[in-house]
Amino acid sequence: MAIDARGVELTYSDGTEAVKGVDIAIPEGEFFGFLGANGAGKTTTIKTLVTLLHPTGGSVTVNGFDVVSEQRSVRESIGYMAQETSVDPELTARENIRFACEAYGVPKADRSGRIDELLDLVDLADVADKTAKDFSGGMKKRLDVATVLVHRPPLVFLDEPTTGLDPKARNRLWDYFERINEEGTTVFLTTQYLEEADQLCDRISVIMDGRIEATGSPAELKSRVGGDVLDIELDDPDEPTVERAREVAESSELFDESATVSTTDEGISVTSASARRHGTDLLVALRDAGLTVVGFNVRSPTLDDVFLAITDADAGAETAGDEATETGGSGTSDDDATDAPPAETEVSR
Ligand SMILES: Nc1ncnc2c1ncn2[C@@H]1O[C@H](COP(=O)(O)OP(=O)(O)OP(=O)(O)O)[C@@H](O)[C@H]1O
């Protein structure tokens, strides 16, 4: 097992319960995605797994080593790409990787071969001797990836590695991650992007408010949505119009007991096992209710829908969102620079 985490809890010294009993079991070679909105607890969990924070409850082994009593062995056997870049802008790409080789104790005789190999892996060989300060965001991230691989760790942690990158740079990074995984490295990736998790991961856990709400392959999670999705675009989708459409949908034939309706910027989305069969009936019912449908589409669910389904289910279950206050001086954290997370998710439709 690459990671075996049981009942992990992490309460910061200001009382914020960021992780509330998380179980994660990741076999070797898996590409695992840890998905959640801002502030859900992804970084706190990852920092616990890489020994930067000590769990306040539960137990974790990484590559068979205990994260508390065998911290050093854990660190030697993993690569960790943090959200903040570790690239030194004053050094060249080659020097940055060489520096990482020294830091990780890569034997001198192996260094230059390893550096060339990694420059090739992330396509930076052409700019190997340019200083990193002139690199684009995507190039810096690629260099970051190379530096965490110098000691050939069997397991790498990537904490939101593509946040802030344009789609092209993001796609390119995905190729490298896939390549690393194909070569046998276990990957633990955190992301806010459902599309990213869908594309890359064998298995995904969704974390919300410090708890894992769902785990499975992208296909399994999508099948939990319980049907296909009918997106309906309304003319002038102000609040009363959308509410009326929701009422019509909820009293239509589509609406069996597992069906759900969510509101979107354009109108409503109905998820139902009979979305394909009875979709057009709903359109007629909406027209009869005096509503103008300007667009509709029936599609298979995406991970966005999974996320929404979980969020909807969760909203009733608990009083949501006691957003923690930042103290900036936590005794348990060795980096206190977490930005206050805005209360929004990256779920775009
Ligand atoms: N040093 C700290 N002291 C106190 N609370 C903290 C600290 N760091 C994070 N938190 C809080 O713990 C919770 C989980 O934060 P965490 O950074 O793990 O979430 P995340 O899912 O990684 O979010 P993001 O996408 O913003 O990185 C949040 O409520 C956050 O405000």
TrEMBL record:
GO terms for cellular component: plasma membrane. Residues 316-349 are annotated as: Disordered. Belongs to the ABC transporter superfamily. Drug exporter-1 (DrugE1) (TC 3.A.1.105) family. GO terms for molecular function: ATP binding. This is ATP-binding cassette domain-containing protein. SMART domains: AAA. NCBIfam families: drrA. It is found in: Cell membrane. It comes from Halomarina salina.
